[in-house]
Amino acid sequence: MYDVPNSERTVTATDTKIAAKGVQVYYGDTHAIKDVDVQIADKTVTAFIGPSGCGKSTFLRCLNRMNDTIDICRVEGDIHIDGEDIYDKRVDPVQLRAKVGMVFQKPNPFPKSIYDNVAYGPRIHGMARNKAELDDIVESALRRAALWNEAKDRLQAPGTGLSGGQQQRLCIARAVATEPEILLMDEPCSALDPIATAQVEELIDELRQNYAVVIVTHSMQQAARVSQKTAFFHLGNLVEYDDTNKIFTNPTDKRTESYITGRIG
Amino acid sequence: MTDATSASAPASQPPRIGSILHESDRTKRRNAAERRFRLYGVIAISIGMLFLAALLFAIVRNGIPAFTQTYMTVQIELPADVLDENGNRDPEDLRKVSTFGYNPLIAAALERTVSEAGIETEITDGSDLRDMLSSAAGAQLRDTVLADPDVIGTTQEFRLLASSRVDGYMKGRVDRESLARDPNLSPEHLDVVDGLVDAGAINRSFNWPFITGSDASESRPEQAGMGVAILGSFFMMLVVLVLSLPIGVAASIYLEEFAPQNKFTDFIEVNISNLAAVPSIVFGILGLAVFIQFAHLPQSAPLVGGLTLTLMTLPTIVISTRASLKAVPPSIRDAALGVGASKMQSVFHHVLPLAMPGILTGTIIGLAQALGETAPLLLIGMVGYIATNYPDGVASGFLDPNSAMPAQIFEWAKRADPAYYERAWGGIIILLVFLLTMNLIAILLRRRFERRW
Ligand SMILES: Nc1ncnc2c1ncn2[C@@H]1O[C@H](COP(=O)(O)OP(=O)(O)OP(=O)(O)O)[C@@H](O)[C@H]1O
Ligand SMILES: [Mg+2]
Q1: What are the structural domains, with CATH classification, of chain A?
Q2: Which residue from B69, B262, B275, B410 has the fewest beta carbons nearer than 10 Å?
Q3: Nearest CA to ligand 1 atom 2
Q4: Residue A102 contacts residue A95 (beta carbons within 8 Å)
Q5: In chain B, which residues have pLDDT < 50?
Q6: pLDDT score of A117
Q7: Which residue range or ranges hold the ABC transporter domain (chain A) (predicted)?
């Protein structure tokens, strides 16, 4: 059905990075995530696919507790990262988010310069001892996000003045600059052209060497290209979770098959 | 469209749009409605501009005369036998001669000046001529002598304040007809004034004392100035700024960014909105009860005025600050939290700078409101004949009885003399200049902060 180029380099590291068990999410009375169990491996790209409104973003936001900022949102169940319960009372969500970086669905650069956008995270976490080190961090982050060539001459220009696709890459650079252990990406390529998409996909593949990457995408081709594991969500349920290879060639559930062949969604 | 629906459409139906070169009836109606709406808008703006123009015209016409003042230049002999009987220039002795003691000297000088100018008049008595000058003239002489006793025994040239009637005559406010019923000055005096104007002894000049001076008693409008009241307003605004900006902004940031959404915060929110609509006189009586009667702070003090106006300004600042915090897109907060910033870092590094122009504008508008507020000041005694002395220092600036610009204007407008009425309009011009300056500062600050996107 789909060409799965990553199929031969199947999961190498199988240590579980994130373990979710019985996760329920409610927005007021809306039951957005229904009893989801999932184990996300380290040094792996995991794709979340599913029709719009099925809860992909919601579940992703549980993993770094961004849902805390939504008053009506309630999360139940267990989510462990490296064996530690992230919803434990002792957990400081700020520390958690330094470890679990995020790229949002809509590009949201700070209304500051390109440089300051990327340097903000390293600055508040004290990652650079001097200006030169910070410059290096910014440059390497921009390079990894495939933005360096376009941005190197205008580092002091406002980040909000970039095109939509460039803004999204700036957000990716901002997220990788803080060196998180897990990177959550919510449709990072929805505003990008095919060339930038290819660059970001390359970046994702590179990030896989060190991080666990979770990517939400509406593009089945993209999921097939970049991920080793795929989770299919439908109406708040995790319908099927397996090797990408398996999901796209031989899905177990009928709903998965209907979705990837374009019959629901 | 499926084949089924297109087949069922009647073939005879004309095309829905037709030629786009001709306006269809619908388009015509729509365009006419839009033209009408624009016309209403232009009319509304014109009416507004008309009122503004009328207001400005009235203020300038009535207020500008207050900025010039009539003076009479006279040579006055300061004889030693009158001013210093013992002849030893002892300041104690010099002080014993009251301002009334100087009046005969002025009278004599006036007689001489009038006759030297060759003016024919029935008023020959110097003390009658004295009515052309302000009753403050004696004090002016005395101050000169006390400041420099060496002038005793010489003849000095003095520029003395003309009386408010003479000043009014020079400005066209007073004429012979109105003086017929006025006990202060007779029409004959005006002939003398005309003569003295020709001789160059009476002239008008810019009225600095009106801007820098203090209030004067009811009978000496020519001497009254705004200066002390301006200082009173200044000290009050200092109190308002220092208290309401940090309290207001901190309260808004807490409510908007940190406070949980529950019944209690809803209750606070409703109450803040209500407070903003409470008439200012209510804050006045609250200030009277709390700060003066309960806390025993001094009456009529700018400190109390400032505290009272702070109560009044806080809701304005809180509401505008919250509005500008709300206007910052939530995605900015998410972005900051997403890279591991704390709530406080996200607020202070990203949200607050973006909200700053709005916060500053709100604060300055709140301050401007407070600056123009009169009603609460009436209740805490900042009105009346009190702005008569400059404070001797910062502490007394806050604690000594004083008035404020709008209260001083109200006080002048209340006094019967038309000369005070003119001063009231002049005071309004000064007040408006301050308000416009504050708005200008608001605009400049806004520009400056907005450039940092
Ligand atoms: N802040 C919110 N308040 C209330 N309901 C919400 C909120 N965010 C999401 N929801 C609801 O939760 C459900 C899941 O939304 P979610 O954003 O996770 O979908 P999604 O799978 O990311 O969709 P898409 O692919 O369109 O981004 C939807 O029914 C949505 O209406
Ligand atoms: Mg989504």
Answers
A1: 7-108+179-260 (3.40.50.300)
A2: B262
A3: A27
A4: no
A5: 1-9
A6: 95
A7: 18-260
